[in-house]
């Protein structure tokens, strides 16, 4: 359902960005980047809670006229950002959560791979597959 | 009967088999499982005869004529004669010895296991006996022959087979492999029949997999152990000629491969049911020199339970994928069914139970990784890597137990809890493991770090006592180890009276060396004699030389001549650069009782990076050599000075004697 999915590392550099309409990639990159500020703000607001997935999910970061941006942060301060098209009105919160959960799971799979160094761009085919699945749904 | 006997006995000499017949017959001969004495299995022969579709009377006649009836068994000549007779009977000739000499087509056997061979090699009755239907089939016969040979010796090959190792050039082999693949397509249905299933139930799989393996690994020479490479190069050549039997080869693990993987696994982790940690596996697979993204992909494929560690079957999968990749096969997007851990488990059950009970596969990481290196390098690397792996293994094993008890952290306990579940089928545990590991794995990267840190506290296995930590007498270690120069060896027998300063001992060692009578670079004991001589020299030189500047501690040396002094000064100069490099060194040099120190040093001296140690050792060695040279030079000069002095004294005395004369 997403038009753009991004994974940002703890130091706020991108580990993975993929967007469906490739011609607007720059716009999405910019959007994701600006959303980081919101993420940071929410992180600091959340406080010391750990491990609670509810708090990992940041919810709607900010809506624009075209799309909505949702955020999710892991315990290791890796941020997932999903940009969905605003025209998909029937996208419920739970669905977004499940998308984040899937992302998180496949992200941990990538991390478990000993050949993957944390901080490297994610090059896992499995991860790509999952992301594509999420984005293809949007159409 | 007598005639028949003699005829049969000489039948072998009568028979002139042409090339094809020769091949065919030898193939059939091996098909009939000749034992060591050359007797053929009568069951197999009977089967063969039945397959010839001749009436039983004819078969009996054939047996009689060829002499097997008389002998009670089929020897090779009897067998060949029988085959010829069969061919004769099939072509309508009477079953008599004279028929043997006729130019016969090859006998036809129907319904036998080697059908394809029949198909390709048997000649229709009308055709000339030598004719093989097509040139393609001609190429089959060598393959068949090699196949048969291979089947015969498959048992041997089982041990000596090492798939990808041979140093033979791999690229030229690839076309052969592809050709063999095309052959395999043709031979599909018949391939399994090639195996002697009756004899060895496991053999079929072996055969199938063996054929897959040569095609897989025959090409790439780079992977695997050089040791086995040498042994198996000939085997691989045989394999090369073999046709690929199974269709889905590249992803099927053969027996030999399984064994090999088991060995490798054992080298990493002695317990087959235990896990190989991700870092360990990473180091191991990195040695295969595959690019990291590919290794990453392989890991993704093989780690089905997503726990960051490899079970035995996962390990086999990963290894197999790596080998396949090295042989040029593109990596699959998803795990082939034959490589799934469950499949591998089944395969493991097929071999004899003792095999499965013990860790079959031992990975030789070193070999896998350093496949491109020279064999020597590989062998050199092996011990080091093996030791490191062993250390890691031991530490990790210790780690597992200790962390189980001690770590309060959730993550680690969760991870360790997950370990005992490993031996169970991974698929069943997937969801459980996932849920268990998921919350923990959020900071999964830290686990490895934590485990690594925890690995350090456990005392490492007893290290060789030769090396010592920084604070200890490293130099002395090297001194003792090297012992090339006499000075160093002089350390060994540290008599309590020996002066603590190495310089002085060096000097003392060399000073006597200057005396021509004394042997140069004597081991230790010479020191004492040197000492004594030194004292004598000292007495002589005392009048001349100033006392030693250095407050050499020992009283023996306190009065030593400027030899010592100069020697010490010389030795001190080289000491200075040494001191710069490594401060404890001079202390070590000065602290004499090395042997006393050595036993006391049980600290893990290996903690010191070996590179630095080696550099230091090199520097020390060089300095010592310079020391030795300088002290020798010094002693020689001293000697000369003494001589000159003596002359001067004598000349002066003469002058004194002459002066009163002159004055008068």
UniProtKB/TrEMBL annotation, chain A:
Subcellular compartments: Cytoplasm, Perinuclear region
Gene field: trappc2l
UniProt family annotation: Belongs to the TRAPP small subunits family. Sedlin subfamily.
Keywords: ER-Golgi transport, Transport
InterPro entries membership: Longin-like_dom_sf, Sedlin, TRAPPC2L
One Pfam entry name: Sedlin_N
GO CC terms of this entry: perinuclear region of cytoplasm
Gene3D superfamilies in the record: 3.30.450.70
Domain of life (superkingdom): Eukaryota
Any one GO BP annotation for this protein: endoplasmic reticulum to Golgi vesicle-mediated transport
Name the UniProt record assigns to this protein: Trafficking protein particle complex subunit 2-like protein
SUPFAM superfamilies: SNARE-like
Automatic annotation (TrEMBL), chain B:
GO terms of molecular function: calcium ion binding
Record keywords, A-Z: Calcium, Metal-binding
InterPro entries: EF-hand-dom_pair, EF_Hand_1_Ca_BS, EF_hand_dom, EH_dom
SMART domains, sorted: EFh (SM00054), EH (SM00027)
GO annotation, cellular component aspect: cytoplasm; plasma membrane
Bias (Polar residues): 177-191, 398-413, 515-524, 555-574
Compositionally biased intervals (Basic and acidic residues): 151-160, 529-546
Record field: compositional bias (Pro residues): 164-174, 492-502
Name of the protein: RALBP1 associated Eps domain containing 2
High-level lineage: Eukaryota, Metazoa, Chordata, Craniata, Vertebrata
């Amino acid at each position: 359902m997403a038009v753009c999915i991004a994974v940002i590392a703890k130091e706020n550099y991108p580990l993975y960005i993929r967007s469906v309409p490739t011609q607007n990639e720059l716009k999405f990159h910019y959007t994701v980047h600006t959303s980081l500020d919101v993420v940071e703000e929410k992180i600091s607001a959340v406080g010391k809670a750990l491990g609670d997935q509810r708090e990992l999910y940041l919810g709607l970061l900010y809506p624009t006229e075209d799309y909505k941006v949702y955020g999710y942060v892991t315990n290791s301060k890796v941020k997932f950002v999903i940009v969905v098209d605003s025209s998909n009105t029937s996208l419920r919160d739970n669905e977004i959560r499940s998308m984040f959960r899937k992302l998180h799971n496949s992200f941990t799979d990538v991390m478990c791979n000993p050949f993957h160094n944390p901080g490297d761009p994610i090059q896992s085919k499995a991860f790509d597959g999952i992301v594509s699945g999420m984005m293809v749904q949007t159409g | 009967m007598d005639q028949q006997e003699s005829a049969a006995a000489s039948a072998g000499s009568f028979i002139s088999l042409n090339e094809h017949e020769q091949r065919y017959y030898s193939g059939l001969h091996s098909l009939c499982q000749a034992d060591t004495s050359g007797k053929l299995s009568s069951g197999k022969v009977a089967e063969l005869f039945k397959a010839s579709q001749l009436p039983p009377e004819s078969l009996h006649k054939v047996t009689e004529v060829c002499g097997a009836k008389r002998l009670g068994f089929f020897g090779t000549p009897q067998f060949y004669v029988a085959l010829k007779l069969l061919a004769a009977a099939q072509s309508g000739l009477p079953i008599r010895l004279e028929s043997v000499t006729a130019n016969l087509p090859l006998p036809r056997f129907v319904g036998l296991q080697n059908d394809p061979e029949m198909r390709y090699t048997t000649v229709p009755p009308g055709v000339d006996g030598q004719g093989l239907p097509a040139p393609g089939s001609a190429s089959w016969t060598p393959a068949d022959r090699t196949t048969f040979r291979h089947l015969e010796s498959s048992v041997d090959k089982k041990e000596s087979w090492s798939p990808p190792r041979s140093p033979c050039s791999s690229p030229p082999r690839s076309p052969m492999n592809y050709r063999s693949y095309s052959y395999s397509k043709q031979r599909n249905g018949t391939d399994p029949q090639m195996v002697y299933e009756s004899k060895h139930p496991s053999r079929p799989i072996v055969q199938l997999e063996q054929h897959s393996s040569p095609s897989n690994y025959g090409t790439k020479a780079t992977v695997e152990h050089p040791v086995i490479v040498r042994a198996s190069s000939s085997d691989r050549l045989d394999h090369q000629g073999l046709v690929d039997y199974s269709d889905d080869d590249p992803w099927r693990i053969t027996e030999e491969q399984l064994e090999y993987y088991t060995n490798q696994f054992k080298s990493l982790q002695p317990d087959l049911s235990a896990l190989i940690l991700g870092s360990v596996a990473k180091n191991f697979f990195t040695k295969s020199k595959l690019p990291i993204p590919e290794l990453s992909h392989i890991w993704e494929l093989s780690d089905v339970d997503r726990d960051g560690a490899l079970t035995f079957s996962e390990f086999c999968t990963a290894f197999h994928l790596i080998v396949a990749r090295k042989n040029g096969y593109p990596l699959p997007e998803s795990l082939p069914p034959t490589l799934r851990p469950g499949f591998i488990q089944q395969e493991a059950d097929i071999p004899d139970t003792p095999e499965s009970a013990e860790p079959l596969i031992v990975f030789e990481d070193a070999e896998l990784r350093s496949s491109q290196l020279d064999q020597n390098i590989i062998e050199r690397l092996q011990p080091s890597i093996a030791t490191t792996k062993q250390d890691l293994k031991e530490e990790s094993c210790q780690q597992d137990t200790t962390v189980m008890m001690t770590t309060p952290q959730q993550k680690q306990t969760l991870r360790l809890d997950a370990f005992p579940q490993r031996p169970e089928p991974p698929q069943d545990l997937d969801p459980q493991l996932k849920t268990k590991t998921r919350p923990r794995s959020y900071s999964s990267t830290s686990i490895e770090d934590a485990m690594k840190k925890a690995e350090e506290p456990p005392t490492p296995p007893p290290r060789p006592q030769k090396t010592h930590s920084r604070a200890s007498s490293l130099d002395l270690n090297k001194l003792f180890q090297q012992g090339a120069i006499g000075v160093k060896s002089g350390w060994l027998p540290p008599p309590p009276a020996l002066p603590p300063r190495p310089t002085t001992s060096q000097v003392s060692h060399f000073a006597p060396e200057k005396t021509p009578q004394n042997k140069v670079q004597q081991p230790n004991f010479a020191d004492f004699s040197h000492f004594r001589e030194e004292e004598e020299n000292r007495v002589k030189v005392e009048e001349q030389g100033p006392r030693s500047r250095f407050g050499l501690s020992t009283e023996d040396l306190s009065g030593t001549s400027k030899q010592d002094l100069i020697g010490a000064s010389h030795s001190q100069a080289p000491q200075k650069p040494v001191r710069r490099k490594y401060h404890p060194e001079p202390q070590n040099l000065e602290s004499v009782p090395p042997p006393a120190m050595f036993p006391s040093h049980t600290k893990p001296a290996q903690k010191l990076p070996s590179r630095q140690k080696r550099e230091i050792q090199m520097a020390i060695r060089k300095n010592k050599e310079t020391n030795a040279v300088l002290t020798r030079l010094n002693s020689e000069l001293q000697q000369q000075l003494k001589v000159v002095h003596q002359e001067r004294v004598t000349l002066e005395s003469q002058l004194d004697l002459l002066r009163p004369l002159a004055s008068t």
